[in-house]
Automatic annotation (TrEMBL):
Keyword Hydrolase: no
SUPFAM superfamilies cross-referenced by the UniProt entry: P-loop containing nucleoside triphosphate hydrolases
Protein name per the record: ABC transporter ATP-binding protein
Organism: Nonomuraea glycinis
GO molecular function: ATP binding; ATP hydrolysis activity
InterPro entries: AAA+_ATPase, ABC_transporter-like_ATP-bd, ABC_transporter-like_CS, ABC_transporter_ATP-bind, P-loop_NTPase
């Protein structure tokens, strides 16, 4: 799915003040179908706000968002967000957590289990299907969260600093895993990070944002050879 933001501004009302706070200011950006775009900028620059606009959780004050060329009115992209805090259901096994992504889609139970198993394999968790979240490491839990998002089969995989809470070694192994999954599924990925290293390593293009009010300072193409 192709994503376009056209001169998008997002303001939030400030209590007891006539002047709204501008979180995003005149952002124009496009993400091609199947592209891996990273969005990097300091804390508070409006990265999460931009994701909220894509999911329809927030609406632009001005400007337009188009998905596959069609202006978004109302709800935006299918939910398929992987957050830093993976928020698995603690009372559900890894498999049942992944199945959750499919329950909303009325997939028959048996097929659901098979598909969920397939996505656990894809994230390298074969053999861990019956484990509960507390029986898994942080990195493994984050993999379950990724598998759950993939199972939902979103048009775009949105990731909001998904690896920020992990130790360096685990983060590196999940970065590799994510690139592999991206190549295997061909999904459009929008990946938010405040780490420039991570942004440049993962992204085909890196959109660099300014401190608030968030603007796109530059969009950098990263050559494949540098991976
Ligand atoms: P980032 O994800 O880059 O850290 P955010 O998008 O979370 O940044 O926030 C950008 C700015 O907008 C911050 O200064 C934040 O305080 C402000 N902001 C975000 N959401 C709201 C809101 N609902 N109301 C008022 N201000 C908000
Ligand atoms: P990861 O980087 O893969 O998330 P962690 O360092 O968080 O790994 O995992 C802690 C331990 O869990 C590791 O020592 C490893 O032996 C085990 N582990 C993690 N993933 C797997 C896997 N896919 N298969 C077998 N063991 C695993």
């Amino acid at each position: 799915m192709k994503i376009e933001l056209l001169d998008v501004t997002k303001e939030f009302p400030v209590r007891d003040s006539g002047t709204p706070f501008t979180a995003l200011s005149g952002v124009s950006l496009s993400v091609a179908s199947g592209e891996f775009l990273t969005l990097v900028g300091p804390s508070g620059c409006g990265k999460s706000t931009l994701l909220d606009l894509l999911t329809g959780l927030a609406t632009p004050t001005r400007g337009e968002i188009r998905l596959d060329g069609v202006p978004v009115t109302g709800p935006g992209l299918d939910r398929g967000i992987v957050f830093q805090q993976y928020a698995l259901f603690p009372w559900r096994t890894a498999l049942a957590n992944v199945e959750f992504g499919l329950e909303a889609k009325a997939v028959p139970r048996r097929e659901r289990r098979e598909l969920a198993g397939h996505y656990l394999d894809l994230v390298g968790l074969t053999g861990f299907a019956e484990r509960y979240p507390h029986e898994l490491s942080g990195g493994m839990r984050q993999r379950v969260a990724i598998a759950r998002s993939l199972a939902y089969d979103p048009a775009v995989l949105l990731m909001d600093e998904p690896f920020a809470a992990l130790d360096a070694q685990t983060r590196e192994s999940l970065q590799e895993e994510l690139l592999r999954i991206w190549q295997a599924t061909g999904k459009t990925v929008v990946f938010i990070t405040h780490g420039i290293d991570e942004a440049v390593y993962l992204g085909q293009r890196v959109a660099v944002m300014t401190p608030a009010p968030g603007r796109i300072r530059e969009v950098v193409e990263v050559s494949f050879d540098s991976r």
